[in-house]
Amino acid sequence: MVNGASREARIRPGETLLEMLRNRLGLKGTKCGCEIGECGACTVVMDGVAVNSCMVLAAQAEGARVTTVEGLARDGRLHPLQEAFLELGAVQCGFCTPGMLMSALALLEIRPRPTRDEVARAIAGNLCRCTGYQMVVDSIMKAAEVMNA
Amino acid sequence: MRADLGARGMPIAGGTDVIVELRAGPAQGTTFIDLTLIDEMKGIREVDGGIRVGALTTHEEAANSTLLLERATALSEACSQVGSLQIRNRGTLGGNVANAAPCADGLTALVCLEARARLVSLAGGAREMLVEDLIERPYRTAMTSEELILDFFLPAPGEGARSAFIKLGRRDALAISRINAACLIEKDGDEVTRCRLAVGSVMPRTQRVREAEEDVEGRRVGMETAFNAGEAVAGRMVEASGVRWSTPYKEPAVRAIVKRAVLGAMGLKEG
Predict the structure, then answer these.
(1) Residues B109 and B191 reside in one and the same domain
(2) Are residues B128 and B229 both part of a single domain?
(3) Nearest-angstrom CA–CA distance, A81 and A67
(4) Which residues numbered 49-88 in B keep a CB inside 8 Å of some CB on A?
(5) Contact list, B89 vs chain A (CB under 8 Å)
(6) What is the rounded CA–CA span in Å between residue A54 and residue A9?
């Protein structure tokens, strides 16, 4: 299941989840950064937890529930996380953003009211060269507030 | 099946080492054997005499386990500092040991806690060995190509025992250990009755430093003993590996990190 819909693809044995999402399923939102698990640009939520899709074999995702950034907006309405990121300037070049959103989504699912420290630790595996991270943390805190209202 | 596939059958669990290593070389024609469906390799549970930790336990599962946090703190602490949350959600303890990187974190804690690995062979049969003996040298274990790690047995330490793990990396997250240390202390009042001390990226392979352990046992709980342990390990490092380009950095760093691990296992803080 990808973003709530059952999806199928023919893959090569060594293909990664990242490659499948982008190249077979046309979901280009998830980014390819370092491909060795050091940047988090490829982060998706798989069975409730944030993972680097560059290091998951596509075959290992069989039967799993995967959420990508494309799964956030509903009926044309942005998710509170996306709204907050836009409102509070957490998006500059935007390359790290899908990964950040996914790490944040996974966090808020298990921790609806995180502390700033918990947010920082949740995104510790997502590198950003533009923002300096503060706006990203602010946005996630803001989204949590909105989602709990 | 593994025996049929021979050298081309690559076991994979979390993939956080396997996939990265494959990128460095040819991946064509690799057949993967996905271990993640093997239920016998999962779970953390109390058993007679200790705790069994399945080889497929992810670092995040180990980090969040109340059982490990209370009874094998060094392991829980080690696992909580590996890579990033994304990596910890996939990478497994079995993989950490089988990969045998010199900087492996979970490995150092397992060695300190005298963990035993249960190996199962696809050709039939099983054996058990100390994790410390399983590591032959960096990136090389004593496992045959037909063996897989089933689980780890952590023997229960004495009443009131405490363990700690300290990692020194270039930064606070997504960092590989430059040096790590794990220590277990049992005490009787003010006196250390038992000490186990393991270091990673210090000695030629991840191992306990018995000279330092013996140095600590019988001494008083406190800063001086912890300090001496640091000195002892740093000395052993230079003895074992000679003076290298990294020695001016590593020697004082090892002293400090080991001291902190010993203090942590004593239930004390620095300063």
Answers:
(1) no
(2) no
(3) 14
(4) 60, 83-87
(5) 49-51
(6) 17
Reported ipTM exceeds the 0.90 cut: yes
In this structure, the answer to whether residues B192 and B146 fall within a common structural domain is no
- What is the domain-level CATH number for residue B236? 3.30.390.50
Partners of A50 on chain B (C-beta within 8 Å) are 85-86, 89
Who among A16, A57, A124 is closest to B84 (CB)? A124
Q: Is residue B36 part of a domain?
A: no
C-alpha dihedral over B109, A53, A50, B83, to 10 degrees?
30
Per-residue pLDDT of chain B (271 residues; tens, 9 = 90+): 444 555 558 899 999 999 998 876 655 567 899 999 999 999 999 999 999 999 999 999 999 999 999 999 999 999 999 999 999 999 999 999 999 999 999 999 999 999 999 999 988 999 999 999 999 999 999 999 999 999 999 999 999 999 999 999 999 889 999 999 999 999 999 999 999 999 999 999 999 999 999 999 999 999 999 999 999 999 999 999 999 999 999 999 999 999 999 999 999 977 6
Our count of domains for chain B comes to 2
Contact by Cβ (8 Å): B264, B195: no
Name every chain B residue with its beta carbon within 8 A of the beta carbon of A103. Answer: 85-86
| Host domain of residue B50 | 2-19+41-155
For B173, the closest of A35, A49, A125 (CB atoms) is A125
Among B155, B172, B199, identify where a domain stops.
B155
Chain A: give the shortest CA distance to residue B262, in Å.
26
Task: With CA atoms as reference, report the closest residue to B65 among B36, B38, B41, B45.
Answer: B45
> Is the Cβ pair A124, B85 closer than 8 Å?
yes
* pTM of the predicted model over 0.90: yes
Dihedral sign computed on CA atoms, order B269, A125, A51, B20 = negative
Alpha-carbon distance A136 to nearest alpha carbon in chain B (angstroms): 17
